[in-house]
What does this fold into?
Amino acid sequence: MSITLQIPTALRAFTERKPEVTVEGRTAGEAVAALADLYPDIRAHLFDEAGKLRPFINVYVGGKNVRNAGGLEAAIPEGETLTLVPAIAGGCAA
Amino acid sequence: MSLIPDDRLPELSERDFARYSRHLILPEVGLEGQQRLKAARVLIVGTGGLGAPLALYLAAAGVGTLGLVDFDVVETSNLQRQIIHSNRDLDRPKVASARDRILGINPEIKVIPHNVKLTRDNALEILGQYDLVADGTDNFPTRYLVNDACVLLGIPAVYGSIFQFEGQASVFYAKQGPCYRCLYPAPPPPGLVPSCGEGGVLGVLPGIIGSIQANEVLKLIVGADEKEGSSLIGRLLLFDAWNLKFRELALEKDPACPICGAQPTLTALTDYEEFCGLTRGAAEVPVETISALELKARLDRDEPLQLIDVREPHERAIFRFEGARAIPFGQLIRRKNEFDPALDAVFICKVGQRSIYAIRALRNAGYTGRMLNLKDGSNAWARDVDGKTGQY
It folds into this structure.
């Protein structure tokens, strides 16, 4: 099943500037792992050394945070879009 | 419910009636709403890209007391987006420049400049003088500090953040919804996400996000939730300026949140530099530096060196570093076998910060060769060796 991931600006440097990437997977976890397989440089930004999703990255499926909707292992509906929401700091004082 | 209790409502003057007539004839604001705005005390943290529209609109709208926290001075590169400051304000403290502009727009309000860095030692005292905080800071330690102080004081933090073309906005109010830590329990390690100074930002973006923050501040003050309105509490607004898309995501309170959860483990402010990984541990090996002039001398002596430019392709288009191999930061670890550990390697970025992170990342990844950081980056080279061209 194909899943479309929306890539935030902060991570587009690793996806050839693409705002959306379509991968194969059944769960949010599989989709994010497939993204890292496709673009290896993004892996360190998404997963820590133990392979766990980093705490400053949120994964949203259909407007809900997967943390509150069954986690990365929950199956996601066909045709659903997945959004990565990283912490960004800028207010740009400098 | 409005944040401003009825017993604080002041009288409006004749001048107020004239100035705020477009608010007064809006039933959702009206006389009482304008009185609440006049009574309100709002602190704006950061008078940069987000703080500029925040301060301008809140001043124009008649927020009675505006506090401004910033310890920076106005620089030329600020003027592309920080529209509260002008060319004539260069080198002035931002809070002084902002104060003048605000009082030019509305001399009826009170402006309190705090020309200090917000720290764990002064945050509760400063934030405690206000009814709510609008957060327009540019770094993670201050974000977590503002969040935690607002939770401890029981006041809302109206949040905005920007990067390149993308913005986020929300209202974090632990009494009624989630806080920033519920969304992001921990920040990225330093260097993983470039700052706006390194990553760039579209000038109009903070204008849009800061205006959304100003909108939320006004609504919290007049009590929009009692008047068929709804705030961004529990909602995260995402804005992509390049594709002109708004999205809204649901935010939920984390019952295990260390500061606003059921059993908080954080009951006082903490060390935010350490929390954000910015304090170097005693065990960490310092990074060796080389100045632009020293590097020039070594190159002139034809010493064998590896020059590695970790900047992005569009930055190299602004200034090309002669003789350097271009490997963007994100590809370094994967390509570390391209380096020769027997030769000194000099790492180059724009200002000498990403290159430090690059060296640490390579060291952690097991690279054993000697690595040197070009101090102050390609800007120093452009300034000290090439003349003035190439600084950006």
